[in-house]
Design brief:
The structure holds two protein chains of two kinds. Chain A is built from eleven helices and two strands, in the order H-H-E-E-H-H-H-H-H-H-H-H-H. Chain A is an all-alpha fold. By secondary structure, chain B is an all-alpha fold. Chain B contains 17 helices and two strands. Chain B has a two-stranded antiparallel ribbon. The longest helix of chain B is centred in the middle third of the chain and has 29 residues. At the A-B interface, helix 4, helix 9 and helix 11 of A face helix 7, helix 14 and helix 17 of B. Chain A: This is Branched-chain amino acid ABC transporter permease. Chain A: One of its GO terms (biological process) is L-isoleucine import across plasma membrane.
Chain lengths: 309, 403
């Protein structure tokens, strides 16, 4: 495989990681804790889309090799992930009277409950969307790029979602309130923003993006109960690389980390014998290196709190 | 886990039972009663032969192992407030250190005396703890959580993929028991005669070599556990331990007092990691087989459940939690026999652990046995129990007003 081919795969994988890390960064800066259930929220979205796709079916025509039913199922996955997050916030996180570290520990319990439920319902084995696999796009093969139209659909959809998040944050009332709350929750409340409502919206947004990322991850690899937990670490690495709490940093960090994970096999060509199994490990080592040199991450503003979206 | 009740009373510095019972908080009374019932049930099961004595000792050893892991985590999280999500990794380093030195199919060294395995396991754990501590201990607490979870994954991947050094997922077999090659103890299980005990006529309980071997293992575990428990208790009552609790309650305060908190956090991190590795060494010689599956992140969270359920910062809570976790782990194996709906044991266990974390954090964040008298020199308090000890949340119990 050529370097450009690894890079093309990297772009596809990065798109998924970016969706996950934006959601995590939003929740991190507004709900105020490192949400270890984020990976399993992705799994919830993926399985919800899987079930919905089984019910809706292909609906005949398709875009980029994907039946239109898949995109509808993905919307269902996003909605279910957001709904599950809201319910969790209402019945688990809201009544807690503990600091952010306590919330972090609780979120691990939440992650286990999600995963256990999915495993009880669907078993531990891998599932696949009932969509025929595609051959690589013919026109791109001469350039050394072998990606399928599904991969292209993932990248395009992720781009649309990222642009939508940008527009939401910068140009809408909700986005302005969210940025205000991420900056300074007390000041936001004092200026009349209903902070709890904004917090709920940030759960909807964060978990919805995670659900989308999970759906695409299920299309890219397969669905299994551990799928979300196994990318959680990569997503955390991306968020730390970008600067905790910074959404634009998370986009950049997610892109870089996704590329690194997929391009790890190239290291063996320069004399470092590391297989693709070590992709997450390399991502993690980069994260540690970033922490050593610049704890606030790429887009961090220099304050240790890492506030602001 | 019934032996817990016995240990409970060792904990006291005064042995006037009646007065001690008066001092108990309500939850301590309930727990003591519950432990008594569990002990009775265990005796009943053992006596009627429904629970094999060797298997019971194996489970008891496992419980002790989890208690040891919990003590290690407690000295990091409970006392200093360090979030370590790589318990399974340090446990695995200890286990693999011992296994690689002693196992019969070890690709590296194999066949050494288990003492070398113990030393190598602890040495490796110490080095890796320092290496991970340097970049992360200066940072906010949640960075440490993420970084340690990542570290655990790297170590698991390494053990799984580097077949030339670790045998990969095939694991390492043929690990001798810890006392193999020792003058008397090495031969003890084989020299002991097979005993038959008939408590109920017709159902004789046979005690054979396995039983004596497990008995030795349990004794080893009790030695490890006792040594760690008393070292920790001594350390945590010292000025060093007070400073650790100050760091947990308010690190800026400790800094303002002119303390190098980074250094103290590093000491606590290394100490806890060594205790976890010790538990790993014990596991290698208890199970006689290790593979990368032993480093699954779920092990880490079993230990977290044990610590927060027992009470962060409370060593006797950690002991209790360790045995409760083994009860959950082993109990869920029998779920298929009991439940009407066939449920898989693995997700059921995951569900129980998850629910337990959420429920403890919701309803009793300070745990069942929050730290009380054990953090204070006995001579520093009068005969009365401190008032209202079971109030407060984990974030503040380092700065207990009754110090």
């Amino acid at each position: 495989m050529s370097a450009i081919e690894f890079a093309a795969n990297g772009v596809v994988y990065s798109s998924i990681i970016v969706l996950g890390s934006i959601g995590l960064a939003i929740i991190y800066s507004i709900a105020g804790f490192a949400n270890f259930a984020h990976g399993d929220t992705m799994t919830v979205g993926a399985y919800a889309a899987f079930v919905a796709f089984g019910i809706i079916g292909g609906l005949g025509f398709g875009v980029l090799g994907l039946p239109i039913g898949f995109f509808l199922a993905l919307l269902v996955g996003i909605a279910i992930a957001a709904l599950v997050a809201i319910v969790t916030e209402k019945i688990v996180y809201k009544p807690l009277e503990i600091g952010s570290i306590g919330l972090l520990i609780t979120s691990i319990g939440v992650a286990f409950v999600y995963r256990a439920m999915i495993q009880l319902g669907f078993g531990a084995d891998a599932n696949r969307f009932d969509i025929p696999a595609q051959r690589p796009i013919e026109e791109l093969i001469p350039y050394g790029i072998r990606i399928t139209s599904h991969d292209l659909a993932i990248v395009l959809s992720a781009t649309v979602l990222v642009v939508a998040v940008h527009v939401l944050l910068q140009y809408t009332d909700l986005g302005r309130k969210m940025r205000a709350m991420a900056d300074n929750p007390d000041l936001a409340r004092a200026s009349g923003i209903r902070t709890y409502r904004i917090k709920l919206w940030s759960w909807v947004l964060g978990a919805g993006l995670a659900g989308a990322g999970g759906g695409f991850l299920g299309l890219y690899n397969n669905l299994n109960p551990r799928m979300g937990f196994s990318v959680l670490l990569v997503i955390f690495a991306a968020v730390i690389l970008g600067g905790i709490g910074s959404v634009y940093g998370a986009m950049l960090g997610g892109f870089l980390i996704g590329m690194v994970v997929e391009m790890t096999p190239l290291l063996s060509r320069v004399g470092i014998p590391i297989g693709v199994d070590y992709g997450p490990a390399v991502a993690f080592l980069i994260m540690v290196a970033v922490l050593l040199v610049r704890p606030t991450g790429i887009a961090g503003d220099g304050t240790a709190g890492g506030e602001g979206i | 886990m019934g032996q817990q009740a016995g240990r409970e009373s060792e904990m006291s510095d005064r042995f006037d039972i009646g007065a001690y019972w008066e001092d108990f908080t309500p939850i301590e009374r309930v727990l003591t009663a519950a432990l008594g019932i569990v002990t009775l049930l265990l005796i009943l099961f053992l006596g009627t032969g429904r629970l094999g004595p060797s298997y019971f000792l194996f489970l008891f050893g496992l419980g002790g192992m989890y208690a040891l892991l919990s003590l290690g985590l407690n000295s990091q999280w409970g006392f200093t407030g360090l979030i370590n999500f790589s318990v399974a990794a340090f446990f695995g380093i200890g286990a693999y250190g011992a296994a690689l030195m002693t196992g019969s199919n070890s690709p590296i060294a194999g066949g050494f005396n288990p003492i070398f395995g113990l030393l190598i396991g602890l040495l490796l754990a110490g080095i890796i703890a320092v290496a991970i501590g340097i970049p992360t201990l200066r940072l906010r607490a949640d960075y440490l959580a993420i970084a340690t979870l990542g570290l655990a994954e790297v170590i698991r991947l390494f053990l799984q993929n580097e077949r030339q050094w670790t045998n990969g997922s095939a694991g390492i077999r043929g690990i001798p028991s810890f006392f193999e090659g020792w003058p008397i103890l090495g031969e003890f299980p084989r020299l002991m005669p097979g005993l038959e005990i008939g408590i109920i006529p017709g159902t004789a309980i046979v005690l054979e070599t396995t039983f004596w071997r497990q008995l030795l293992n349990v004794s080893l575990m009790l030695v490890f556990l006792g040594a760690v428990f008393f070292i920790l208790r001594r350390a945590q009552r010292s000025p060093w331990g007070r400073l650790q609790r100050t760091i947990r309650a308010d690190e800026d305060l400790a800094k303002a007092l002119g303390k190098n908190t980074y250094r103290y956090k590093m000491q606590a991190f290394v100490l806890g990691s060594l205790i976890m590795a010790l538990a790993g060494v014990f596991y290698a010689h208890l199970n006689l087989f290790v593979n990368p599956g032993d480093l699954d992140p779920i092990t880490t969270f079993y230990v977290w459940v044990a610590v927060i359920l027992g009470g962060s910062g409370s060593n006797r809570g950690a002991l209790l939690g360790g045995f409760v976790v083994v009860a959950i782990r082993e109990g869920s194996r029998f779920a298929n026999d009991i439940a009407f709906i066939p449920l898989d044991a693995a997700p059921l266990r995951l569900l129980l652990i998850g629910l337990l974390i959420v429920l403890v954090m919701r309803f009793r964040p300070q745990g069942l046995l929050p730290p009380q008298r054990e953090l204070i020199w006995p001579s520093a308090v009068g005969n009365k129990a401190p008032s209202g000890p079971d109030k407060g949340v984990p974030q503040s119990d380092g700065g207990d007003p009754n110090e």
